[in-house]
Structure formats: C-alpha cells, structure tokens
Amino acid sequence: MIANMSLVDKALTFAAEAHKDQRRKSGNSPYFAHCARVAFATAQAFVPTYEHNFWSWDHLVAGAALHDVIEDTEYTYDNIRDMFGDQIAQIVEALTNEKNQPGIRAVRKFMDRQRLCAMRTEIKIIKCIDRLDNLGEMGHIDEKFQVMYAMESIDLAHALWFPDPFRVRRQDDNEQMLHGLCLEVSKTAHSLLAIPVMEKLDVLQK
C-alpha cells in the first residue's frame, strides 16, 4: 500500500508510525502533529514547481515530515535512505542534531549552529520553520527552559543569517525567505523573554 502513495504521503505515513507512541513535552500533544505542521509550512514555503539541482519540492516536503525521525526515534539514516533514497536521507540528516553528542549543552548547540551554517539555504529555511513551530508551543514548558530555548533560538537566527561576515549574499527568493524567517524566529524568541524586540534586532534588519 505505502509503495503506491506519493512521496510526501509516504513520508507523512512513515513519520506518523515512527512517532506514534511519542508525545510533545509542550502540552502533551501527539508528536506527529509537529512533524505534519513543519511539512505543511515547508510545502507552502516552496511552490510545487520548485526545482533545484539538488532537491525537488517533494524531496523538501518529505524531508521536513521526517526531520525528527533519526533524532528522536530508533530509525537510522540507513533506514531512511533505504525507504526514501539518498536525497531525502541527506535532507533529514542535515536537519538532525547529533543526539549522542556528549558535553555541555551550550557547546553542543554551538556545534549544531556551526554545522547548519554550512548547509544549503533550503535546509536553513526548514530549520527555521521547525524552530518557529517549537517556539509556538513554549507556553506549557517550564520558564527556565523557555528562557534557555529562546536565547538559543536568537543565537540560531543570527548564525543562520550571518554565518560569514565576508560572504556576498545572493538576492534570490530563498535568501529573502530565509531573512524573513530568521527575523521571525528572533522576534518570537524575544517575545518569550519579554525583551523589547527592535532594540535587539538592528543587525538583522541590515
């Protein structure tokens, strides 16, 4: 049955099965609901006619649906590759934080940001979509974690938009979309911290 589905439907079905026994820490909702929202927002971000040398629209949306499978379930990169192919497996791997990294959280998050900075713009866009959805569910999380996650989100938004001060940025649609999403992530995170937003965002406006 699953072999006859579209690539996106197949990915959503697989993600629902992989996360079926998991609940979100924020509000105890089904974990898959988050995956579906990220996939839907990605589908809206990239028009269906989107074609790139690397990934199609279907690849990006399917990768978004599966973005937490390697990180938060027992499935591996090889499992994703065997079922969905190399391109989608590469997208999911790029969106996966290394769950077995030892050490202090701040160091691990710094390493994750450095890794993401080297990724293609499409990956950064999906990561921002994922982060925005997570920030939207912070209301049921304890305040200490909210503050920590909000500060990490601000650092992430800045890093994804300014990974290299000497880089000449392309002025294409994806870069403009990334800019807008980085601003939204930073504004949303600042709102959780109850800090005046515009005072902290001058650099992102440039």
What is the general shape?
globular
* Unreliable spans: 196-204
Helix and strand run: HHHHHHHHHHHH
Assess the beta-strand content as a share of residues.
under 5%
Q: How many extended strands?
A: 0
The residue-averaged pLDDT reads 86
What structural category characterises the helix and strand content? mainly alpha
Supply Rg: 17 Å
- Kindly report how far apart the N and C termini lie: 50 Å
Helix content: 55-70%
Counted up, domains total 2
Please summarize the sheet with the most strands: none
Number of helices: 12
Counting copies of identical and different chains, the oligomeric state is single chain
Describe the structure.
With 206 residues, this protein is mainly α. It has two domains: 1-96, Hypothetical protein af1432; 101-206. It is 65% helix and 0% strand. The protein is built from twelve helices and no strands. The protein has helices at residues 7-18, 31-45, 57-65, 69-72, 77-84, 86-94, 105-117, 121-135, 143-161, 173-193, 197-200, 202-205. Helix 2 (31-45) runs antiparallel to helix 3 (57-65) and helix 2 packs across helix 8 (121-135). The chain is globular and about 45 Å long. Residues 196-204 have low confidence and may be disordered.
